[in-house]
Structures are given as C-alpha cells and as structure tokens.
C-alpha cells in the first residue's frame, strides 16, 4: 500500500513552502546582499520643510576619509525626474499640475527628508561621517502643512501651482444628488479626517546599483513590489537605459503594503552612481529615514452627507474631500483619492444618486500614495460612519439599516452611479455570518454586564466593498493610467516534467510560492514539489506589473491558468499523436491524457519528455518544447465585500479602549489557500485597528514630523490587538477562471469604521456622534467628560 | 580595535572589531549571518533579537565588544540542517509569518518566552511579545503558533 | 555611531580612574538608552567605560527593613528575585513590566536611576520608597537625588554602586503606558512607610519624577483607592505632548494612584 499524498490542491490550507527559508534565517533580502568592491551610500536630507537652496558645499565631505563621491542635484541635470504614472483630469478637462520631482533636490527643498545630496564612501560609517560635513546653505520659506491653509493663500509648494491645487476632480451626477437631498426625509452629515499613516513595512527600503562595464548592463537590487515597473519607469523616464541593459531584482521583500510600489529616488541614484564611479553602490534606509522618505498613506479631510427617504432607504450621497498629495506626486498618488475612492462610494448599497468632489493639494510633507487599501479605506470609512451615524439618528439598528439598503443578489451585474459594475455578491450572507459569529443578538446583555463593572461597551458594524484585481487596461487607460494593468506568466515544463512558473506578480509576504504552486499542481495533476514559482527578477520573468491592489491571484493567477491551458492544449496535440487518436477525443485530467472512453493514456511527464525529445512527434505541425506565456488583461475589477463587527470596552477613567471582540466575514470568492487568506485578513485588521486607535503621522506647523520613530508613531503590538474571528462566504468572481477576488486589503478597509462605530456606540450615552482617528485614550476621555458636563448642565 | 572571542551558534569566532560596532553588524557583516535583521534605529522593533548567554536580547542595542566571552545563538543556530525547532515548526504550521522579516527576532523571542514560562496564557504571550513588532500577521497566528509550540514542548518534556 | 575608546574595568576604582582620564567619558551600564542615543549620533563620548565586569555591582541582598540592589542588576533579575518579591513585591512587578523582555535582560537599575528619564519607572519607586542611592563617593537620599529631566545629584565621574530600598508596609505601582514607546505616560508608585505615605509620579512631571503631596495627604487620612481617586491634581508643572496633554496627565494621576493603592492592598 502506498501512502496517499496529503492534498495540496486548490482550497487546501497548506502551510507555506517559503516559510522554511524565513524560519531558518536564510531568506535573502536586499540588505543581505553585498557585492564585491561595494561602496556605501548615505543620503543627506533636508532638515527643514521648505527652503531655497542657495548653495551646497561638498568640499569638506569629499575630503573626508574614505569618500568616493559626493553627488548633488547638479549631477543629475541631464537626467529625468521621478515620473508620475497616472494623469488625473479634473473638472473642465483640466489636467492635474505635475511638477518636476528631481532625484536630488534642485533649487528648493519641499519637505523634511527631501534628499539634498548623496555621499558614497568605502564604509557606511565613513559615509555617515562625511554626510555630516555636507553644508547646504538654505533660506527657509513659509511652510504649508494644513490642506485648507494650503488652498487659502498659503505658501506655494510649487511655482506651477500657486494655489497648491493639483487637481479638482469630480465623479457622479451632482444635479441628481442635489435633487435627492432636496426631497430627503432625513439627512446625516459628517465632517471627518482620514488620518495620515506611515506604512512601516518592517524591512526598511534598500537599493544596490551594479554596473557591468563588460556588457554595459545595469543591475538594481531593490525592495520593490514590482521590479518590471521600476525597470520601465527608471529605464525609460529617468535614466534612459533600455530594458535589455537594465535588470531589476526584487529578492525577498519584507512587506510592502503599497509603500514599495513606487519608484524612489534612491533606486535611480544608486543605479546611476554605480556606473559613474565604476563600483557597486549600496543604500539601506534607517527607520527614521523611512519615516521621512517612504510614501505615506490616507490623509483626507472630508465632508460627507447622506440622504434617506422616510423608509430609511439611502437616496443620495455627497462627498467633498481634500486629499493631501504631499510635496511631490508619488508614482500613483493621483489615482488613489479619485478612481480608487470615488468609484467605491456606492458601497454595498443601492444609493441611486452620488456625487463626489476631490481636491488634491500640495503641502510641505512627505508624498502620499497608496497604502493597504488605497482610497477604498477612505471611501469605506466615510460611508460606513455615515450608515451607523444615520442609524443612531433615526433610531434604527445599524445592521438592519445596512440590510435594508443592500444591493440584492438578483441585481447583479449591478451598475453603480459611480462608474463601476459589480459582477456578483451576496451582502446579506456575509452580514448574517458576521452577526452570528459576533453574537450580535447577545450584545445588550454583555453591555449590561460591562456597565455593572463600570465599563462602557459598544458594538460597531461595517460593511465594506473594494475594487481589486486592477484592472482592465483599456478602462484604466481611459482614466489616466500611463501603464497597462495586465499580468504575465510563463509556464516552463522541463523535460523531466518538473515545472517552473515565471510570474510577474511579486510576493513580499503573500505566499505566492505556495498558493500559485497549488494552482499549478492542481491544474496539471502533478505533485506540488514538482512546481517552482519564480518571481522578482526581470532577467528571469518575461514581464509583469507586480503586486498591489489585491491583484496577484485574480490577475497574475489567471495569467498562470491561461498559460497552463496553453500547455495542456499543446500537450493534448502531442498526446493525440502518440495515442493515435483525434485531438478532440483526448481528455486531460489528473495529470494524464486519456482517449475518451478507453484506458489508453499518457502521463503528463511522458508528454513533456516527448516534447523535448521529439523522435516520435508531429514535428511539421507542432514545435518541440513545452513552454507557454500568457498575458492576461482582466475584464473587470473584482469586488470583494464583507461585514465586520467590532466590540469594544472603554475604561471611562482613562479613556482606554480595549477591543474585546472582532469578527470578519468576507466574500473573496473561491479560496486557493484558506490559511493564507486568514492570515491576510488578520494582518489587514491589525493595520485597520492601528489606524483606528493608534497610528497617526503628525506634523507640526513648521513641517517637522513629530512622529518620526517608533517612540512616537504607535505601531500595533501584540497586546494592542485581540485574537480575531474570521469566516468567509462565497460568491465566485464571474470573470476570472479561478473565481477569486483578492483578500489582501479587506481587513485594513473594513476594520477602521467597525472600530469607530463601536466606540461611538459605547459613547452614545455621552452624546458622542463621531470621533476622528486615532481614537486615543485622551480623545475618548475628553469626549466622555464633555458629554458628562453637558448632561450635568 | 578591541579583540573579542565569543561563541556563535556553537562555533568559536572572534578577532579585532571596532569598538563602535554593534553586535548585529558583527553578526550580519563580519560573520555573514544575515538571518538577524535590523528593522528600526530606536531599539524597539525586535527584528534583531538573538540569544546571548541564553537570554533574548536586541543585538542592535549591544556592542560586539560587550559580547566578548559570551555564547550567542542566532536564528541560524536554533536548529540544524532541515530540522526545525518546535517553535519554528509551529510558526510554519500556524502561518505565523508572512514577509518573514520580523520572523527571526520573533522566533528567538518566543523561544525565550517559553523557556521562562513554558505554559503561557494568551495574555502572557502577547505581553511577552511587546518587544517585537510584526506588520503582517496581526499577531493572531504568532500567538497561536507559540501556544502550539508550548503544547508540543510540554508534551515532549512530559514524555521524557 | 561615532568612534570612541572602549574600556572595561573590573573595579570601581579603575572605572572612576578611566572615566577621569578621558575627556568626555560616559559610563555604559545596560546601554538601553545610551546605545540608541549613540546609534543616532546624538552623543559623542570620547570613551565608554563599560561597568558590566566591575565586581560587586550585581546582586540583591536582604537587610533588616531594607533590601540592597547592586547597580548593575538587571530588571529581569529584580523581577524574578525571591528576595524582592517577598520584601517589596510592587518593585518586582514594576521591574517585570519595564519596556519589554529584551530590555529587561540588559537594562539595569543603576542605569535607569543615573539616566533619570522623566518617563522611567524606577525613579518613581526609588522616590516613593525613600531609597538611598549609593555611589562610589557617598549615599544620596532619593529626595535629594532627582534634580530634573535627565538630571540627578550625581557629579561627573560618580558611579552608582547600588540602591538601598526600605521595605514599605504596603506598596503598589500602576502605570498608564504611552502606547508607542511603552514608557509611562503616567506611573504612580504608592508606599505606606514607617515615615508616612509617600506617592511618587513618573511620566507626567515637566521636571521629571515628583512626589504628589495632595494624594499623600489623602492617603494618610485613608489608605484606600477611593481616597486617591477623589483627589484633584493640578495640571500646573506637568508635561504635555502629542501623547497626552498636561490636563489629561493630571487626570490620570489620581486614577493610577487609586490603582496602585488597590495593588498595594492586594
């Protein structure tokens, strides 16, 4: 008897294959890599938020021991600036203002941390010593940090935008929305901020530039979520290096959450400098540097209002948002508060009339771009806060108000009033699952018990939707994207039947090495240990757009499936020849080609060998070899959705909020690896709780970042979060073959409103109707005291 | 430059080191043991945790010279070959890691935690992980993994 | 980190001599504050005098009515000491809750007291218990020792060798953490001693650790959580920052004092 191998196919909660190297300490992150004859680079950054650069004296630094080169903006005069990958067109067809973003500052510095110079030396300590000797003569200029001040005559960050307005964009039907409000039975209004966050992947960014004089080839090792995109942007727009002379390697990457999508100055700098000095150049960020140079996330100031009819049906929504761009446009910044925000404002609801206006604003702060969720958390937060606030105002249950407004399963495909078409969903199913798991019905008893113990208990519901798997290239192209958003995969079947899959998706924690291999093993009917997943190197992978927007499985996975189908089809032709049967009569299943209705069969491995040793082979009609590439361009976004329930207990004496229960019920469509999916949800929830309770990037009025380290920027730790209860419901995605939707961002999208709704529920006796994030103990304490004072009056 | 002699993962090592070299840089740069990571510059993230004389410490907050004469264990020395320490195995089983960057420090912290408290409650585990930041997992599966490891190690100890 | 000379004396006398020999020397105890400061190039000592191998600086001893703790005794060792747990359990709990486990293995009581971080835990215990700071030159009463933010009565080159901590009839500590750094936003150590009730507050004072006389008076009248909680503490002289205003800190002091009393009464 032989042991049946443990199942590994689609749907199996398989422990990850990549864990071994991480657990043994033999992962290979960028900073783990060293090159022979390597030099070290330290960046000199602006200590002030806004200043004119009068001069930069590098003489003392250049003379410092071990220094190889000192570079300033002047060295990069012939080099392009960092490009923006998305052109947003505003009202009246006005394109966004797109100021130059130099690699090293020229003329002015515009935020604390703006790079001024680079010192390259034999050792890191020597580079640091010399960096202190770079003397930049700066004349400080007035600073704008607050977006409203920036728009109202604050100092101009860029001459091109005297009013600091990058664009003024709108979506939806204003007249229809206004009409809905005119006829509304109830209107709920809300002013809120979506707090600025620092992504804080645990691996700081790093980059190593290498130039091979013999071949003229540049290699960049970098902490990127999308090495091909970096090759494209840096090669074509910044340094003018053709693709065939530029290799970008993103090896093991220690988390990204969006912050490692973008093309950063340091990447271009080390690549360029390596050729200039003829030696490899390595730069690794220190955490304090990450705080002032990684793109931040969120940072919206919003007024939103929702109109309801007398039955509690939402009939209109108006949203007015200011979105902070920071001092320069990061790679995808303009699309975040627009096409990834305005388009999600229908949520799970049938609201027929929606209007959204977004003004993007330059300030003297670090650029803001996508961070886990990217636009969708901002949309969900305002919408789900409005829903719970409206429920409280109208005296109806927050879950029931949502239920009443859900798009029904029979209504799909559903055209929203904000451009997108939802393909499928069952929102009541996930709401019911969440309420059941949270014992929503038992909450009043728990609240009463807490009250007896002197605690305030509250429960919050949030039902989110997100648009993932970005996206059809033709659509995003029409919306301003300057790149396509397909994905590529090559499946290479080796002569002995093992398989290498080269994917353009990039894993920096998502477990592709396991889940993609599960798909391949399942489709080909071969053992999973015969499958190798290759990613993160432009020299190995034909092309790719990378990993963000929860797109890897839906888009990258589909590209793999399509390539596998080509392999299977070609194999069928070979098998038909070997089996002397008509191609149409040959079926492929469980790793074998079989003539229908017979026991005549050829194993997949045998076909692979035949393809490479084509002795008995239809050589006139089929090429030898077994390797196929597919580019998949999605037909639509995917629309993961779900409902979250958070229960909090507040200590009124200190204002401390404890999360005593957190439930997530998500519909991600089909699951390939439920273990990995749960992990993604957990991580997202923790980041969402972080946003709701702990995290905020704080600038003072001079543009200094007051939360520039873990001493002041509050990262969630193990004792800040509870264990979570997560479950899933399933309506398979209708337009990709795996039926998957994406799960990477849901937690970060659904959690913040669930937490704040729970806090507002707990504080309802104190007349609290809203609280901005993060709901720190002091804020909660103040709200309680203000409410108590008001009650006493 | 001071001369140091120490044992790292059971092997004697040493030589002259700059006085201002951190232990983590000695491990990563001099010995090439890059499993120990640096995630911050304010001694808070715990990615650099190793064991010095059996205690979990932040190797970014200790000079290499301070480890003179010590026995140091890094993630690379926790188990040999294709074996996994029970804590490593539990992290894999429970999906207690994602990007893997905090993982070596987290595992070394967890091994120390179970050495001082072999049967911790969830609250004790969470409190014991105060010095280690993970941005990926939300800690849920890390806590679960440590509980699994505690059970396994407890059973093994009971059987012996 | 800037370069420096590294010295590792084995006796107090040698340590003091090495310190004096160097232009701008610094003593290195556990290094939990000094090394991060050096890493960020915020200090530039010419020499580090490492006290880790100095004889007789480690260990915990029992005396009549007091315990003695060597300056280089780690937080972990204090937290797990049978002597401390029996004599002043609040001190053991305080030590076991400083920072995180890794910090507790390296950080020392002497280093903490010498640094006098305004949000550190030990200064509150030392002040409330009426400790005596023992140096290579003299003994300093806690009431005279803490002189301001990161400032103490220690003279240049003076080394703490140990701390004498009187055993209180009842003692308790409660802290409300600043969630990012995990230092105390407000920490209150309450001790009922033979000489009366002493209450010390850390994390909140604009000039560092201080005694809170209104709460001391209230607890002298009635050593109960409610008595502490009923006190209104003024925000004058308290520190305010992005983590908590002076007013909020003022409100937390009686709350934490009440919890410290509850802990003391066990």
Structure description:
Chain A has about 800 residues and is α+β, with helices and mostly antiparallel strands. Chain A contains 19 helices and 28 strands. In chain A, helix 14 runs parallel beside helix 15 and helix 17 (about 675-695) crosses helix 18 (about 745-760). The longest helix of chain B has 20 residues, at about 140-160. Chain B starts with a strand and ends with a helix. By secondary structure, chain C is of the alpha+beta class. In chain C, the strands form 4 sheets. In chain C, strands 4-5-10-6-7 form a 5-stranded antiparallel sheet. In chain C, strands 11-12-13-14 form a 4-stranded antiparallel sheet, with helices on both faces. A 3-stranded parallel sheet of chain C has the order 1-3-2, with helices on one face. In chain C, a hairpin with a 6-residue loop joins strand 11 and strand 12 (about 185-195). The model of chain C has no long low-confidence stretch (mean pLDDT about 95). Chains in contact: A-B, A-C, B-C. The interface of A and C includes residues 125, 714, 720, 781 and 782 of A.
Main β-sheet of chain B, in a few words? 5 strands, mixed
The helical percent of chain B reads 25-40%
- Rounded average pLDDT of chain C: 97
Low-confidence stretches of chain B: none
Radius of gyration of chain C: 18 Å
Pattern of helices and strands of chain B = EEHEEEHHHH
Strand order of the largest sheet of chain C: 4-5-10-6-7
Mean of pLDDT of chain B: 97
Annotation field: number of helices of chain C: 12
Quick one: which chains have the greatest interface? A-B, 57 and 56 residues
Amount of beta strand of chain B? 5-15%
Shape of chain B: globular
In short:
The complex is a heterotrimer of chains A (793), B (160) and C (266). With 793 residues, chain A is of the alpha+beta class.
């Amino acid at each position: 008897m032989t042991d049946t191998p443990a199942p590994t196919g689609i749907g199996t909660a398989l422990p990850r294959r990549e864990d071994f190297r991480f657990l043994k300490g033999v992962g290979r992150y960028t900073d783990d890599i060293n090159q022979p004859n390597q030099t070290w680079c330290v960046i000199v950054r602006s200590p002030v938020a806004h200043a004119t650069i009068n001069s930069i004296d590098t003489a003392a630094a250049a003379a410092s021991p071990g220094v190889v080169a000192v570079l300033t903006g002047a060295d990069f005069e012939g080099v392009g600036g960092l490009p923006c990958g998305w052109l947003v067109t505003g009202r009246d067809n006005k394109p966004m203002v797109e100021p130059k973003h130099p690699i090293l500052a020229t003329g002015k510095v515009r935020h604390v941390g703006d790079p001024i110079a680079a010192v390259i030396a034999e050792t890191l300590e020597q580079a640091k010593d010399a960096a202190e000797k770079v003397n930049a003569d700066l004349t400080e200029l007035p600073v704008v940090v607050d977006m409203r001040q920036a728009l109202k005559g604050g100092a101009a960050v860029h001459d091109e935008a005297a009013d600091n307005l990058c664009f003024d964009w709108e979506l939806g039907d204003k007249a229809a929305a206004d009409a809905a409000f005119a006829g509304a039975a109830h209107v709920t209004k809300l002013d809120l901020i979506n707090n600025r966050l620092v992504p804080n992947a645990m691996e700081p960014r790093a980059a190593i530039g290498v130039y091979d004089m013999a071949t003229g080839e540049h290699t960049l090792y970098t902490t990127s979520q999308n090495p091909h995109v970096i090759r494209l942007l840096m090669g074509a727009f910044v340094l003018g290096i053709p693709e065939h002379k530029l290799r970008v390697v993103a090896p093991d990457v220690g988390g990204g959450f969006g912050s490692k999508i973008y093309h950063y100055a340091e990447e271009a700098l080390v690549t360029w400098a390596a050729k200039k000095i003829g030696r490899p150049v390595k730069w690794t960020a220190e955490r304090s540097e990450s705080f002032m140079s990684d793109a931040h996330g969120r940072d919206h100031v919003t007024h939103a209002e929702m109109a309801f009819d007398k039955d509690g049906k939402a009939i209109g929504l108006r949203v007015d948002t200011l979105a902070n761009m920071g001092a320069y446009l990061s790679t995808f910044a303009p699309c975040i508060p627009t096409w990834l925000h305005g388009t999600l404002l229908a949520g799970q609801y049938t609201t027929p009339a929606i209007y959204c206006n977004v003004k993007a604003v330059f300030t003297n702060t670090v650029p803001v771009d996508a961070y886990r969720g990217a636009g969708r958390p901002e949309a969900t937060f305002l919408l789900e806060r409005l829903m719970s606030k409206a429920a409280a105002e109208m005296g109806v249950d927050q879950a029931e108000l949502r239920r009443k407004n859900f798009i029904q399963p029979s209504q799909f495909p559903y055209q929203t009033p904000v451009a997108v078409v939802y393909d499928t969903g069952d929102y009541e199913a996930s709401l019911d699952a969440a309420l059941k798991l949270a014992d929503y019905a038992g909450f009043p008893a728990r609240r009463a018990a807490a009250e007896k113990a002197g605690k305030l208990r509250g429960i919050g519901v949030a039902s989110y939707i997100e648009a993932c798997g970005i996206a059809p290239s033709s659509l995003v192209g029409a919306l301003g994207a300057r790149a396509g958003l397909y994905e590529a995969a090559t499946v290479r079947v080796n002569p002995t039947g093992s398989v290498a899959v080269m994917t353009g998706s990039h894993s920096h924690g998502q477990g592709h090495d396991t889940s993609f291999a599960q798909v391949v093993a399942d489709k080909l009917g071969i053992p999973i240990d015969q499958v190798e997943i290759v990613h993160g190197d432009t020299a190995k992978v034909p092309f790719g757009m990378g990993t963000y927007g929860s797109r890897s499985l839906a888009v990258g996975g589909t590209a793999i499936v399509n390539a596998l189908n080509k392999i299977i089809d070609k194999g069928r032709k070979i098998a038909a020849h070997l089996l002397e049967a008509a191609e149409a009569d040959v079926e492929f299943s469980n790793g074998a080609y079989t003539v229908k209705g017979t026991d005549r069969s050829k194993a997949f491995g045998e076909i692979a060998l035949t393809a490479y040793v084509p002795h008995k082979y239809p050589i006139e009609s089929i090429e030898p070899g077994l390797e196929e590439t597919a580019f998949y361009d999605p037909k639509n976004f995917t629309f993961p959705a779900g409902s979250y329930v958070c229960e909090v207990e507040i200590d009124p004496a200190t204002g401390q909020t404890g999360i005593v229960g957190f439930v997530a019920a998500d519909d991600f469509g089909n699951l390939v690896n439920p273990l990995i999916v749960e992990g993604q949800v957990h991580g997202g929830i923790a980041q969402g709780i972080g946003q709701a309770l702990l995290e905020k990037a704080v600038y003072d009025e001079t543009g200094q970042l007051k939360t520039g380290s873990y001493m002041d920027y509050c990262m969630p730790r193990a004792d800040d979060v509870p264990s979570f209860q997560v479950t899933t419901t399933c309506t398979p995605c209708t337009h990709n073959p795996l039926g998957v939707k994406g799960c990477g961002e849901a937690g970060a999208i659904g959690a913040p409103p669930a937490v704040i709704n729970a806090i507002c529920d707990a504080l309802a006796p104190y007349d609290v109707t809203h609280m901005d994030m993060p709901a720190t103990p002091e804020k909660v304490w103040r709200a309680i005291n203000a409410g108590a004072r008001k009650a006493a009056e | 430059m001071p001369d140091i002699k120490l044992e790292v993962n059971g092997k004697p090592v040493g030589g002259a080191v700059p006085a201002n070299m951190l232990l983590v840089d000695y491990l990563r740069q001099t010995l090439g043991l890059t499993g120990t990571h640096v995630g911050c510059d304010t001694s808070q993230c715990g990615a650099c945790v190793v064991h010095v004389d059996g205690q979990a410490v932040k190797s970014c907050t200790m000079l290499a010279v301070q480890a003179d004469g010590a026995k140091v264990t890094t993630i690379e020395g926790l188990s040999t070959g294709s074996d996994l320490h029970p804590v490593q195995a539990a992290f894999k089983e429970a999906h207690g890691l994602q990007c893997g960057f905090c993982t070596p420090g987290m595992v070394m912290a967890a091994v120390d935690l179970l050495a001082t408290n072999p049967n911790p409650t969830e609250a004790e585990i969470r409190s014991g992980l105060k010095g280690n930041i993970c941005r990926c997992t939300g800690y849920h599966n890390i806590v679960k993994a440590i509980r699994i490891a505690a059970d396994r190690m407890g059973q093994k100890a009971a059987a012996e | 980190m800037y370069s420096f000379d590294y010295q590792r004396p084995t006796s107090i006398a040698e340590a003091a001599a090495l310190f004096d020999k160097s232009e701008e020397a610094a003593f290195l105890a556990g290094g939990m504050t000094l090394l991060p400061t050096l890493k960020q190039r915020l200090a530039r000592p010419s020499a580090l005098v490492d006290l880790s191998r100095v004889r007789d600086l480690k260990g915990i001893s029992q005396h009549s009515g007091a315990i003695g703790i060597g300056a280089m005794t780690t937080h972990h060792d204090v937290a797990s000491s049978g002597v401390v747990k029996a004599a002043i359990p609040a001190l053991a709990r305080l030590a076991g809750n400083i920072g995180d486990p890794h910090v507790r293995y390296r950080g020392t009581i002497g280093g903490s007291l010498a640094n006098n971080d305004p949000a550190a835990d030990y200064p509150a215990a030392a002040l409330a218990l009426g400790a005596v700071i023992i140096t290579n030159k003299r003994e300093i009463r806690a009431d005279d020792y803490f002189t301001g933010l990161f400032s103490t009565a220690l003279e240049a080159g003076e080394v703490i060798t140990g701390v004498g901590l009187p055993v209180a009839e009842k003692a308790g500590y409660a802290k409300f953490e600043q969630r990012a750094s995990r230092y105390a936003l407000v920490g209150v150590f309450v001790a009922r001693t033979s000489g009366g009730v002493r209450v010390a507050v850390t994390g909140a004072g604009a000039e560092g650790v201080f005694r809170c006389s209104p709460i001391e008076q209230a607890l002298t009248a009635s050593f109960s959580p409610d008595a502490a909680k009923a006190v209104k503490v003024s925000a004058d002289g308290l520190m305010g920052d992005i983590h908590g205003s002076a007013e909020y800190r003022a409100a937390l002091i009686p709350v934490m004092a009440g919890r410290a009393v509850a802990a003391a009464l066990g």
